[in-house]
TrEMBL record:
Family membership noted in the UniProt record: Belongs to the Mrp/NBP35 ATP-binding proteins family.
Protein name according to UniProt: Iron-sulfur protein NUBPL
Phylogenetic placement of the source organism: Eukaryota, Metazoa, Ecdysozoa, Arthropoda, Chelicerata
Signal peptide feature range: none
Organism: Tetranychus urticae (Two-spotted spider mite)
GO cellular component, one term: mitochondrion
Keywords for the protein's UniProt record, in alphabetical order: 4Fe-4S, ATP-binding, Iron, Iron-sulfur, Metal-binding, Nucleotide-binding
């Protein structure tokens, strides 16, 4: 791995940002962006005085604007930095604010890296206690650019219980281990469906997959999230995430 990456750049903190937490899945379709939003909201709920930022690092498929009900173009401050949009008490930035909603982004790698640097360094983020970064699927250039250029407090891996999702979650865990980013834990999303009428629970995507992955990789399971609209599961997960030994 070291031979492939060569000499690593010096990690420079984002001004005014205390802790950066990456939310990754290495796979699309497991609810990672929804988990990122709910995790940020849960952190704000249990630490009301904290200032929380949310960065959508998925350049090609930004979904945070829709999830956060935001659509305006960011204004610039006197220093020429973009001012994050704010909703639900969260400071938010996404490539989705900078391009037309229906326009496809067809860029080569260097342009994507330039965009990521702009989202990291060209935004007036601070002061923030936590910056949650919703990572794109995969283990490629964007992931390496972020983990190699800024100090990261830790990462969270989101998966669903079925083996096809767990395969990529393993790759994501391996990637974070290779680049030296602490893994704070695993979130098992879509763990069970509870019928609103009868209360019966069904494991649509299988059962206990993330628990097995946790034992296999020695990465703690932060919690499981059912297919419902409640924020309670993420409040418990956020509480586990910021326990004193993980702060």
């Amino acid at each position: 791995m070291a031979k492939v990456m060569g000499k690593l750049p010096k990690k420079i903190p984002i001004p005014g940002v205390n802790q950066v937490i990456l939310v990754s899945s290495a796979k699309g379709g497991v609810g990672k962006s929804t988990a990122s939003v709910n995790l940020a909201l849960a952190l704000k709920h249990i630490q009301r005085s904290s200032k929380i930022g949310l960065l959508d690092a998925d350049v090609f498929g930004p979904s945070i604007p829709k999830l956060m009900n935001l659509s305006a173009n960011p204004e610039l401050n006197k220093q020429g930095l973009m001012i994050p949009l704010v909703n639900y008490g969260l400071h938010v930035m996404s490539m989705g604010f900078l391009v037309e909603e229906k326009k496809a982004i067809v860029w080569r790698g260097l342009m994507v890296m330039s965009a990521i640097q702009k989202l990291l360094r060209g935004v007036a983020w601070g002061p923030l206690d936590y910056l949650i970064i919703d990572m794109p699927p995969g283990t490629g250039d964007t992931q390496l650019s972020i983990t190699q250029n800024i100090p990261v407090s830790g990462s969270v891996v989101v998966t669903t219980p079925q083996e096809i999702a767990l395969l990529d979650a393993r790759r994501g865990i391996t990637m974070f281990n290779q680049v030296g980013v602490p893994i704070l834990g695993i979130i098992q999303n879509m763990s069970i469906f509870i019928c609103e009428k009868c209360g019966h629970g069904t494991h649509i995507f299988g059962d206990s997959g993330a628990e097995s992955l946790s034992l296999e990789t020695n990465v703690p399971l932060l919690g499981s999230v059912a297919l419902d609209r409640s924020l309670l599961s993420f409040i418990e997960i956020a509480t586990n995430l910021i326990k004193p030994d993980k702060a």
